[in-house]
Amino acid sequence: MNRNPVDTIDSLPEEAFLLPWYVNGTLDAEDRGRVEAALAQSAELREELELLRAVERSVVASTDAMPDPDPDGFARLMARIDAEPQRTAQPAASQGRGLLARVAGWFEVSWRPAMAAAALVIAVQAAAIVALVGDRGEAGGQFQTASGASGTGDARFLVGFADGALLGDIRALLERADAVIVKGPTADGYFVVAAQGDAAQAQSTLQSAANLVTQAERMP
């Protein structure tokens, strides 16, 4: 029997809302410990975790097959969510519960709250990629597909960007490093960045931006 997503929100510990970030490895040590302690106590939370991992695997598997993203798609998605009226079949208790409950209702009542949160995380990641794509025909674009990364050097780095890093700051950093994003995000939330010029200088520039970059390791 399908469960109402709002009822499920009430039945899960608050750590459920941290699961998407637990899956992609961007939680700090304190929050990661909270989630792991809650997982040890809650079979339902462990089930949510497995669902999210399945979502992550599906997203990663479909990355290379996806068409070029629509730059306005994320804005339209959020506008549609914002404009969608509350379903009459939803209990009154769902009123005023915020965006997460509204997204859960907007998809289908069988969606669970962690799945709705994952959809938002995936949408935000997609929006970040779109924002870095720009017009691929213009000079200075900081994103290329892996197959279209002509002109890049052989050096590639697995890069993690800090949670909350601004897109403008990331773009400026990539310009300083003379590097481009060629793939990502991975299931762990990392991006593959290719150096267009000197590899050592690119890595040094990325690693020096500790406020923006959590990892910049050269790939074999």
State the distance separating the first and last CA atoms.
49 Å
Helix fraction by DSSP (H/I, runs of at least 4): 40-55%
Q: Structural class, please?
A: alpha+beta
Read across the widest sheet, the strand sequence of neighbours is: 2-3-1-4
How many strands, what sense, and barrel or not for the largest sheet?
4 strands, antiparallel
- Overall number of strands: 4
| Count of the separate structural domains | 2
Rg (C-alpha, Å): 19 Å
Low-confidence runs: 1-9, 86-111, 133-152
Give the ordered list of helices and strands: HHHHHHHEHEEHE
Number of helices: 9
Q: Sum up the overall morphology in one term.
A: elongated
Mean pLDDT: 67
Estimate the strand proportion: 5-15%
Question: Care to describe what's here?
Answer:
By secondary structure, this protein is of the alpha+beta class. Strand 2 (179-183) and strand 3 form a beta hairpin. Mean pLDDT is 67; it is low at 1-9, 86-111 and 133-152. The protein is built from nine helices and four strands. The chain has two domains: 5-133, no CATH class; 146-218, Alpha-Beta Plaits. The protein has helices at residues 5-11, 19-23, 29-41, 43-62, 73-83, 99-107, 113-133, 167-177, 199-208; strands at 156-161, 179-183, 191-195, 213-218. A four-stranded antiparallel β-sheet has the order 2-3-1-4, with helices on one face.
